[in-house]
Please model this.
Amino acid sequence: MTSVSAHTVSALASAAQLAPSADNSQPWHLHWDGAKLHLQYDAKRVAGKTFPADSPSTLLSIGSVIEIILTCAMQWGVTARFSPSDTPGADNDYGYFELCNEAPSPAVPPPAVGERHCNRLSYKSAAVNAALIDKYSAATQGKARCVSYTNTTALKSLAQLAKQASQIRFQTEEVHKWLGRSLRFDRESIAQGDGLDVNTLDLPPGGGLFLRMISDWNTMRRLNRVGAYRLLSHIDAAPLAKGPAIACIVAPATLSAALDAGRLLQRVWGLINADGLAAHPYYVIADQLARLDAGLIGEQHLGLAQSIKRDTEAALGLTQGETLHMMLRLGEAKKTAVRSKRVPLDKILSGV
Model:
């Protein structure tokens, strides 16, 4: 393919900034070498602050970046081809894009990209249109598929699994410290453009102060002695039981399938928002399942984690080798949510 201008590369990278990521960590980096746009893990910026390069969570984000670049390229008349690396995440590399033809000016992302956002606030109880649920459930990408639920029994069952997974999370030092480091409480830290802006959370009066307090692991550990993890996990999972719908992204537990899941996550989430609905991601079950498979669950939580795995497989009708990669609560939002900021373009793009 012939080379493209810095405008086209920058436009695609700007759109890629909109991809979802764990606690808004934005772990990717794009490097233009004059002929190829390389997709990499930004170890210098995020290593030790979020999930590793080859973790399922990071691969979901990378898959979302791939989906956004290919979607925008098609929308703008840019020919784009992605060649994945043989082992995604190894040496912090995921593959590269070859590009041909120029993007228009201005290059505006389509609604399914530009309107995708997270809304953790309350939703109306009105049922989601069945035709929309069918549309999301019909979406596939490679080995990834979407399974959606609207009936009360299924919603409560998935909420219970999320509650159990959250109980493990609030008692796991490593995971809790990652969350604590990601929280952004003041204007200066929020302005950095990464991390979890507490203004995006559905916190009651005084909730920010409480969250700041328990973000310290030593404090959380002391509170757990009197059962704080039970209360917090109940609060965390309660919105799922109210629905009105949940969409689950499932795929095999392999590196390449996790990229497929990330592409499908971006596409389904984008459709949900473009259809005027809100979406709230829940990764907690998928996270504990991944940690279980990696042997990272503490012995005191091993029995519960194994039970969560069995019950998740049954609830979602998973086939051999499949796992849950992400769960989305969806419905009609009562209020508009604050959108998370993004790091400056020059932090995630080089070579132009």
